[in-house]
């Protein structure tokens, strides 16, 4: 009988104290929206950092001018089959001339009288291989092949980008920790105030001999239900903010749809945990301040 009673009383708390329930749900919705928004920004930042590291960690294999078309095709096929290679792009001498003219403008035409631009293969590696040591090993491997003249990648720029990304990740983790802690204290204090408003009921139950566990269970159930409702509301708010952001940043629609699907379940589960922790923490604080006389 205790468990059904706890559930029944926990749900009845919404009807008996609508204002306090609304206050708790509002506070948890704000807290969960902050957590979800930070998680969404962290997800987007991770996608952008992966894309940036792949672009910066791009290798370019310059081929010897004496290499025949069949030999170049064989090298290209061999590069495609290398472990860690995500995709490749062959740049012929004519393509290189076009790229050179686009980057240097009409003034670069004076250098195009002689075919000094060799054919090359641009290599984009998998995210796990975007590291100076991994790229250096690939560069050494490619340089040892026949028909390969030179292999280059921007080691200095890659190291700088990785250093900046690590710094941003540390700052993001610190901010995320602050957001989570602030959310927990916000929820706990709000639930504590709602429990304090019902201190006479708690005092009466203690006077008739109810144990603290028996008194606490309905409040925990109420806190968990409030967390579920808050999680769903926060997910809807996050979805609305994301839909609004797409009008200004259309590229986010390709990056965050999977995250938004996960957010409904994740924020709901997070709301349940917040409600459970907050109600237990608040009850422990309130029960000790209620005198029996």
Briefly characterize the structure:
A 4-stranded antiparallel beta sheet has the order 2-3-1-4. The model has no long low-confidence stretch (mean pLDDT 76). The chain has 9 helices and 4 strands.
Description:
- This protein is an alpha+beta fold.
- It has two domains: 2-52 and 161-287, no CATH class; 58-153, Alpha-Beta Plaits (2-Layer Sandwich), CATH 3.30.70.3040.
- Helix content is 73%, strand content 8%.
- It has nine helices and four strands; from the N terminus they run ααβαβαβαβαααα.
- A four-stranded antiparallel beta sheet has the order 2-3-1-4.
- α8 runs antiparallel to α9.
- The radius of gyration is 31 Å and the shape is rod-shaped.
- The model has no long low-confidence stretch (mean pLDDT 76).
Low-confidence stretches: none
Strand order of the largest sheet: 2-3-1-4
The Cα radius of gyration reads 31 Å
The succession of helices and strands, N to C, reads HHEHEHEHEHHHH
End-to-end Cα distance, whole Å, is 30 Å
Question: Helical segment tally?
Answer: 9
- Overall geometry comes to rod-shaped
Q: What amount of the residues lies in strands?
A: 5-15%
In terms of structural class, how would the helical and strand content be classed? alpha+beta
How many β strands by DSSP?
4
Total domain modules: 2
Percent in helix? over 70%
- Biggest β-sheet: count, sense, barrel? 4 strands, antiparallel
What oligomeric state is this? single chain
Mean pLDDT: 76
